Amino acid sequence: MDDSKTTVKHLEFDLPKLNNLTMADQVELKLREYFKKKAFKPGDLLPKELEIAASLGVSRNIVREALSRLKAFGLIETKKKRGMVLAEPDILGSFEKVLDPLIMPDSILYDIFGLRLVLEMGLADVLFMYKTEKDLQDLEKIVSKEKPDSEKFRIKNEIAFHGKLYAMTNNDTLKRFQNMLLPLFDYVVAFEKDHYKPGGISHADLLQILKTGSVEDFRNGMRIHLEPHFAWLEHIKNKEA
Amino acid sequence: MDDSKTTVKHLEFDLPKLNNLTMADQVELKLREYFKKKAFKPGDLLPKELEIAASLGVSRNIVREALSRLKAFGLIETKKKRGMVLAEPDILGSFEKVLDPLIMPDSILYDIFGLRLVLEMGLADVLFMYKTEKDLQDLEKIVSKEKPDSEKFRIKNEIAFHGKLYAMTNNDTLKRFQNMLLPLFDYVVAFEKDHYKPGGISHADLLQILKTGSVEDFRNGMRIHLEPHFAWLEHIKNKEA
DNA sequence: TACCTTTGTTATGTAGAACATAACTACAAC
DNA sequence: GTTGTAGTTATGTTCTACATAACAAAGGTA
Predict the structure, then answer these.
(1) Could you write out the DSSP letters of every residue in A82-133?
(2) pTM for the structure as a whole
(3) Which residues does chain A have within 8 Å of residue B61's beta carbon, measured at their own beta carbons?
């Protein structure tokens, strides 16, 4: 009996035991590298389900599970009869599908919050590059609606003003990115509430700089405007240390 | 005959013809909103495949395709016998799965490139907040290896230096993000090549500012360092207009 | 009593067959 | 030449069956 056991051990060593991945996982990977290897371009026709199944030696169900994933990522599109074609994936689309502040650990939320500060501090140069007269008028309209009293209106205008800044960058990806991250910011704001004090530079001030000031002025102004948030980040940093 | 046609038109209007979605798509959506509605938290046990299938009136295969997608997004994990549990998704993981410069349209690549500039310009304040003595030493080591001649070494050191900056932000999400975007930058660099001229401020200069200068100095320094890239962005802008 | 083996149950993983459906093809009829 | 009809093809969907891992409970031995 002991003999057979040791024999089995030897056999185990020969077999590739690292089979943690399910068949569907493996097929998904195989397909990904296959597409890459073949240098398929969007619109190209892909092999049929049955061909893939036969080629990889798995059932059609497995192949369909893998394809279903690629479809969910927007990597492929399927049409009856014609087959499947490689698609242009929407890079932010699949990102959006996992963004749920409720199931994200705080550490990630903090990171996202820090990312926001980096982004907003970095906007200045691009803003001065792309700003138009109409943009400034739009900002003017937003600022004019601000009321110092209401907390709800404050947040709403906060979003409107900063959102407009992102929109002015002429960078749709960046704008969409910010839009997706907004709910997370809201979530952090809840933590932040107790510490929040308005910065020394208002939206109106920023707009004025944007109109008549220099890029450098704007960078410095934005830094002061975001001061409360930076203070909170500092607060987190110290708490973790 | 004409009568019946008009009748059909009316009926069409009543029926929800927008059935472009496959069963798997619908189940995926249903499950997503179900999890959200029930306010499940990571680790919570989810219904069994057969229960879902019965509840929604579809076959188990369909349910499995939908679950397979959620699994690919990292939203759920499955364990034999125990069932499925809600997982903490890796927000960047699913992002990474669609990042392939070969199948992305140029417009997106430009956006990503702009995003990079915004990020790097925004790093300054966070850098000064988190920088340590060891970080500066690491940068020193990187800078000391730079050789002015080789083009290949230049790019390598470029990545090392800027990558280290991201790492210094103490923001893993941001760092990973940059790391994922790197291949895309490489791709853009190919376009940029013809126009590239080194900026007026070197990595060594930036390091010096980081050591003894002010945040403001660093922001301005980074802007000059990135000048060639900004020039290229301007070039794109004018070409599009 | 304590430990260990066996057996059973449960839920996911995989396979295979069958039919439904949309879209394209080609032939035929008027 | 247009219309209509049947056939073909590949995805969409369902059903059944079995494999496998993990856990639970029962039962036997020291």
Answers:
(1) TEEEE----HHHHHHTT--GGGS-HHHHHHHHHHHHHHHHHHHHHHHHH--H
(2) 0.86
(3) 61, 64
